[in-house]
Write a structure and sequence with these properties.
The chain is built from 9 helices and 14 strands. It is of the alpha/beta class. It has a domain of 174 residues: 3-Layer(aba) Sandwich (Rossmann fold), CATH 3.40.50.150. Helix 2 packs antiparallel against helix 8 and helix 3 packs parallel to helix 4. The chain is globular.
Length: 321
């Protein structure tokens, strides 16, 4: 079953206009994930330079039993589920009364729900198509009534937000999960600059195609006049912000029409498609605590490249097992 709460075109136009007015220009990262963008992102995860998905998947397979025991019983709610390929070991170990994946791409989500329901027929699956960063509350549904909610947020997607936005999102997640709620969250950690930049600028050019697909979507959905050939893709490490900045850089001065307005680009000006902030264990713990969570447990790969943190609400009496 799928509940569709995808933002309406008018909301998209407003958000895009707000983003284009920023300095530098920056659009919400979820706009990257139409059907084609979701397909390209899945391809990025398979590139040899992009180790995050393989590392996190291996960690989940190895530690799913301990994670399930620490989470305890409850409905599993996955934020930004995408193709939902990582959740399998956790579903097997946890056997929740329901699994609720949230994602912005309805087509991608419907396919993931269908596949997972076939693989885990004993776990009811309820997909919700939405921008989870703007979700004030989960929709009313019998599968959610009276249940403890357990959040699952893999992929280090929290890094797509600024630290201030990330803190606000963690506050929002605490409210969504409610009393007794917990959150299992994946966090990518800083490492050698060359490794990080290569992960977001693969030799096959899939990351570049993913970013340029944003322009295709803006042209299709919001009447844009972008020429993708007028931009080149760039991914670089910004040490002062502990983040990779990904963007489309204008090759020459020009203007585009978008959402009923004209926007100018200077030569060398970037349209930021997304950021990926990297957090050390100490930095993430501080961020989570500032948002009202307590870090109960942490699992990491042998190289300490990535970690999954179990958070519990600081005002909750629930504790990790």
């Amino acid at each position: 079953m799928l509940i569709d709460l995808h933002p309406q075109p008018a909301d998209m136009a407003r958000l895009v206009s707000e983003g284009m007015a920023r300095q530098p220009k920056q659009l919400p990262a979820w706009l990257l994930y139409d059907a084609e963008g979701s397909r390209l992102f899945d391809a990025i995860c398979e590139q040899p330079e992009y180790g995050l998905t393989r590392t996190e998947t291996s960690l989940l397979k190895a530690q799913a039993g301990g994670m399930a025991a620490a989470l305890g019983p409850g409905v599993l709610v996955e934020f930004g589920a995408g193709n939902a390929r990582k959740v399998g070991p956790l579903l097997e170990a946890l056997q929740p009364p329901a699994y609720v994946p949230l994602d912005i791409s309805a087509e991608h989500l419907a396919a993931a729900c269908h596949q997972l329901q076939g693989q885990h027929p004993q776990v009811p699956v309820l997909g919700i198509c939405c921008d989870y960063s703007g979700l004030d509350q989960l929709p009313c549904h019998p599968l959610l009534e009276g249940q403890t909610l357990l959040g699952f947020y893999p992929g280090s997607s929290l890094g797509n937000f600024t630290p201030q936005e990330a803190q606000a999102l963690l506050v929002q997640f605490a409210q969504l999960m409610g009393p007794g709620g917990k959150l299992l969250i994946g966090i990518d950690q800083p490492k050698a600059v060359a490794r990080m930049e290569a992960a977001y600028n693969d030799a096959a050019g899939v990351s570049a195609a993913f970013a340029k697909n944003l322009l295709v979507r803006l042209n299709r959905d919001l009447g844009g006049t972008f020429d993708p050939a007028a931009f080149h893709y760039q991914a670089r490490w910004e040490a002062s912000q502990s983040r990779i900045a990904m963007g489309l850089v204008s090759e020459h001065p020009h203007s585009v029409e978008l959402a009923g307005r004209s926007w100018s680009f200077a030569a060398g000006e970037a349209l930021i498609s997304e950021y990926s902030v990297k957090y050390s264990a100490a930095a993430f713990t501080a961020l989570a605590e500032a948002a009202g969570w307590s870090c109960a447990q942490r699992w990491s790969d042998p190289n300490n490249d990535l970690a999954l943190h179990l958070l519990v609400r600081a005002d909750s009496t629930a504790t990790a097992s």
